[in-house]
Amino acid sequence: MFNKRRTSQARQHSRMKRLEVRVISPRIAWFGCLRALRKGAKLAVVLALAGVAGWGAWLGVQRALLDNPEFRLQVIDLNPNDALDERELVAFTGLDVQANLFKIDTAKIRERLLERAELSGAAVERHLPGTLIVRVTARQPVAWIALADAPVSRNPGELVVDAGGVAFPCAARQWEAARQLPVIRLPKREGEPLVAGQTVRQPELARCVRLLTAVCGTDPSSARAIESIAQANAWSLDLTTRTGTVATFGLDDHDRQVADLAAALDHASRQGYSIATINLIPQRNIPITTRTETVTPRATPVSEPAPVERREDRRSQDLKAILNRG
Question: What CATH homologous superfamily does 69-138 map to?
Answer without folding.
Answer: membrane protein fhac (3.10.20.310)
